[in-house]
Amino acid sequence: MKKRILIIGACGQIGTELTVYLRSKFGKHKVIASDIREGDEELMKSGPFEILDAMDYDAVEEVVMRHEITDVYLMAAMLSATAEKFPMKGWNLNMNSLFHVLNLAKDKKIEKIFWPSSIAVFGPTTPKTDTPQRTVMEPSTVYGISKQTGERWCEYYFNRYGVDVRSIRYPGLISYKTLPGGGTTDYAIDIYHKAIKHKKYICFLNSETTLPMMFMDDAIRATTNIMEAPAENIKIRSSYNLAAISFNPEEITASIQKHIPEFKISYEPDFRQAIADSWPQSINDSDARNDWGWGHKIELDEMTNIMLENLGKK
Ligand code: AKB
After folding, report:
1. φ and ψ of 175, to 5 deg
2. Are the beta carbons of 12 and 30 closer than 8 angstroms?
C-alpha cells in the first residue's frame, strides 16, 4: 500500500493516541510523527519522528517530500483558553499551519488532509441544545474564530481545487494517556487526576456548565473512520458536527463519587466560564451518522471507570 502518513502535532493530547493507533493499523514505518519538540518516551520509541514547526512551510514541505507523504493529520493548534491569552499567536499558528497543508494538497504534493475543527465554531447566538450542523455561527473566542475561518477555507479548497480535506468538530476530549493543554474542557480530565490524588477538586467552571464531551477512543475512531471513508460519502467539506456525551461538573462529580464517595468538588469560575457559556450544551451529529456511519460507544460512567482505573495505576 502506498499510503504514508504524517502527523503534525503528534505529541499533543490527540496526536499521541492517534500516532499509536495509526502505527498499529498501517505499520510503524508508514506513520511519521512530528512536533515542535519531542514527546514522551513511548511515542518517541514507537516509530519515526521529526522535529517540525507547523508554521514553517519549507520545513513541512521538506518532510512531506522526503518521506513521500500521502496523508497529513494536522493536529497542532492553540486551544481556546491559551489563545485568549495570546490572540495573535493563536491565530497565526491555527491559520498558517492549515494554509501550509491546504497548499501542499493544492499543489498535489499530498493527497488527503485531516484537520480538526471544534464546537468552538459556535457562539452565544447559536441554539444551545441539539445544535444543528448548519446554524448561526458567531464564535466569540480567538480559537473559535480561527476554527470557523479554517472551515470556510477547507470548503473553499475542496470546491475550487478539489483538495480532499476532511474535518470534524471535536467536543471536549477526555483521555488518561496525555494531558491536554490550554482548553476550556480540560477540567473534565483534571478532575479525575485530582479525585485520585487529593479527593477534592476546585473547578474553574460552575456546577451547571453542560458541555459536549467525548472519550478519546471514540474520537480516534471518528478521526480514522472519516479519513478511511470513500470520498463520495464525505458530503460536508467544512467540518462535521460530532457528538457523544454531554455533562456538567456536578454530573461528572456524581459519576466519580460512585467509586470515591468522599470526593468533593468546589467552584471558583474564572475567565473560562465565559468561553464555556458561549458554546453549545449538546450537538446534533446526524450528518456524520448518516454520511459515514459515525456512532459513539462510551458513556459517562464507563468513561469514569476507564479513567479512574488507568490513572490509579500510574
Ligand atoms: C477547548 O476546550 O479549547 C477544546 C475544544 C472544545 O476544542 N477542548
Report:
1. -155, 165
2. no
Indicate whether 180 pLDDT > 90.
Answer: no
CA of 123 to the centre of ligand 1 (A): 13
Q: For domain 174-212+245-281+298-313, which architecture applies?
A: Alpha-Beta Complex (3.90)
Question: Could you give the residue range(s) of every CATH 3.40.50.720 domain in the chain?
Answer: 5-172+215-241
- For residue 285, report the distance from its CA to the centre of ligand 1, in Å: 17
Q: Are 166 and 226 in contact (CB under 8 A)?
A: yes
Under the banding of pLDDT at 50, 70 and 90, the label for residue 314 is low
Protein residues with CB under 6 Å of any ligand 1 atom? 79-80, 118-120, 143, 170, 172, 183-185
Q: Catalytic: 143? A: yes
Sign of CA dihedral 217, 223, 224, 228: positive
Instruction: Pick the residue whose CA is nearest to atom 8 on ligand 1.
Output: 172
Domain spanning 5-172+215-241: CATH superfamily: NAD(P)-binding Rossmann-like Domain (3.40.50.720)
What is the Cα–Cα distance from 281 to 297, expressed in whole angstroms? 19
> Closest Cα to residue 113, out of 121, 123, 105?
105
Identify the CA nearest to 282 among candidates 255, 314, 242.
242
Q: Which of 143, 157, 170, 192 is catalytic?
A: 143
pLDDT in tens, 54-88: 999 999 999 999 999 999 999 999 999 999 999 99
